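Shipment paperwork, digital attachment
Item: protein structure file
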Amino acid sequence: MKSKLITIIVNVCLCAIVAATCIVGFAGGGAVEVSGDNTNVYYRAKDEPQGVSLMFNVYQNTSQVYKILDILDEYQAKATFFLGGSWADDNVDCVRDIYARGHAIGSHAYFHKDHSVMNYRQNYDEIKPSIQLIEAILGNKITLFAPPSGAFNDNTLSVCAALNLKVIMWSRDTIDWRDNDAQIIYKRATEGLSSGEFILMHPMEASVSALPDILGYITANGLKAVTVPQNLGE
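Attachment content:
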């Protein structure tokens, strides 16, 4: 009787494990389990940082993107651009220009949805096409993903693990999409800034106005504006 009971318990446990794995979802051939420790999520550089990283999430304002690129060139600074797939599809020349000027490019998904409420397949269908599009434009591998609004769940992490993507967050948010004030943006980007930080920005008019002063502060304080991969030692 005892051996039969043990067998039943073992079978129940195995069924539960299989069910949990199936819930995680589909990814072109199989699910990827997530440990829950979020070790693939980066809020800043963790080891021997090389500088600070300006990150621009892009779904609009292409003209401002070009202004940002010119300012970065002027200060010999590098940044990371997380591109929405729907924007990249309409701005292929700009995507190539960003890359040609030596900046890093990552995915910001395709349609700026809330990934924290999406199942595995929904996450996959938002992230994978954006990666395929940008890689086709650049002819180069994409390894970084920034979830829109910083919203993600275990399904998002599973998809990123399956696609070999690092999930990039931020250590400070300028909230420039909301506050159209260059001085406020400058303060949020620079106050107490330290090596290894990731600074979130967008191609907004006030951000463009604040950018020269931000880059000036970075240089004056012995820091350097580098890409996220450089900051992560890649």
